[in-house]
Design brief:
Helix content: 25-40%
Distance between the termini: 47 Å
Shape: globular
Order of helices and strands: HEHHEHEHEEHEHHEHHHE
Largest sheet: 8 strands, mixed
Structural class: alpha/beta
CATH superfamily of the domain at 27-173 and 193-225 and 286-301: Vaccinia Virus protein VP39
Number of helices: 11
Strand order of the largest sheet: 1-4-3-2-5-6-8-7
Strand content: 15-25%
CATH topology of the domain at 27-173 and 193-225 and 286-301: Rossmann fold
Radius of gyration: 19 Å
């Protein structure tokens, strides 16, 4: 029997309006747009299906970052807004940015459903359209780690943060499940010189060097997220269909190489499964880090960062 397909996410509001299925009430204004130079890999698939399962990571991160009512919070590479909405629930003034407009539209829909104020801007983390010292807190749950310019991303996050402000990051670790997954996927792709692993941000020493700050400015905690799916085949199906970068990887491969990659991921999942044959529970470690920008620093004095060598 073929595996039942995962139910597709609802189309954005604009698509529903065209089909007569728009939500009642006045239409919300379109988000401000600062278009990235190229299409984000997250524009492929439908990350909302996966992102919804990671909401607990965002809730824990905003607690670790001590988000308070009235603070100005920026969620970069926000996707469908997990961290942004978690901060808004704490009565912060929140802005979400992402290079994929469709993901931000879903974040706005979620905010409307909870009657939460949320500002959205289409922008990549490497070029944030905000003045220096604009925010009290900058957050990212995994999204920022996928940047192609990690030095530029770190510098921008520091630039828009006020002195004494906090950066809260959740980053997969190199030796955890996602690190092993990245290695398995990479083994089936041709080498790309400019590619860096998102799990580099899951090492405290790398973060300290990347942000040009002493380790004393970082508060780190190891955490675990459990991927919970019906089976290994179900996990592969969901991520192949809806995870933008992985969707694009499979689409770029010839059928034989697609099958080989699917088998490799399935074997990795089955080896990591702690639930037995009736279900799938795969623990994945991640680093929760809160970085405090020194009071004495100014945007002009911030270091010109370059990618550091992971320890």
């Amino acid at each position: 029997m073929p595996l039942a397909r995962h139910p597709a996410a609802r189309p954005p509001a604009a698509s529903r309006a065209a089909s007569g299925d728009a939500a009642p009430g006045p239409a919300a204004p379109a988000p401000a747009v600062d278009r990235p130079s190229r299409l984000s890999p997250w524009a492929h698939g439908d990350y909302a299906v996966i992102g919804a399962t990671l909401a607990i990571v965002a809730e824990q991160l905003v607690e670790a970052a001590d988000v308070r009512a009235g603070e100005k919070v920026l969620d970069v590479a926000a996707g469908t807004g997990n961290a942004a909405l978690a901060a808004a629930r704490r009565y912060a003034h929140v802005t979400a940015t992402d290079p994929a407009p469709a993901l931000l539209e879903q974040a706005r829909e979620r905010a409307r459903a909870e009657a939460l104020p949320l500002s959205c801007r289409v922008a990549g983390v490497e070029a944030l359209p905000f003045a220096d010292d604009s925010f009290d807190i900058v957050l990212s749950t995994f999204g920022a780690t996928y940047t192609a310019d990690e030095a530029g991303a770190a510098r921008e996050m520091l630039r828009v943060l006020r002195p004494g402000g906090r950066i809260g990051l959740a980053s997969w670790t190199p030796r955890g499940f996602v690190g092993r997954l990245c290695h398995a996927v990479g083994a089936h792709l041709p080498p790309v010189a400019s590619c860096t692993s998102p799990t580099r941000w899951g090492k405290p020493a790398h973060l300290a060097a990347l942000f040009g700050l002493p380790p004393s400015q970082l508060q780190c905690r190891w955490r675990r997220f459990d991927f919970r799916y019906r089976s290994a085949a179900h996990w592969v199906q969901v991520f192949r269909d809806f995870h933008g970068p992985l969707h694009r990887v499979f689409a770029a491969l010839e059928p034989a190489r697609q099958q080989a990659l699917e088998h490799a991921i399935t074997a990795l999942l089955q080896a990591a499964n702690t639930a037995g044959p009736g279900s799938l529970v795969v623990p994945a470690s991640y680093l929760e880090a809160v970085i405090t920008r020194p009071l004495a620093s100014s945007p002009a004095a911030l270091p010109r960062l370059s990618p550091s060598t992971p320890s």
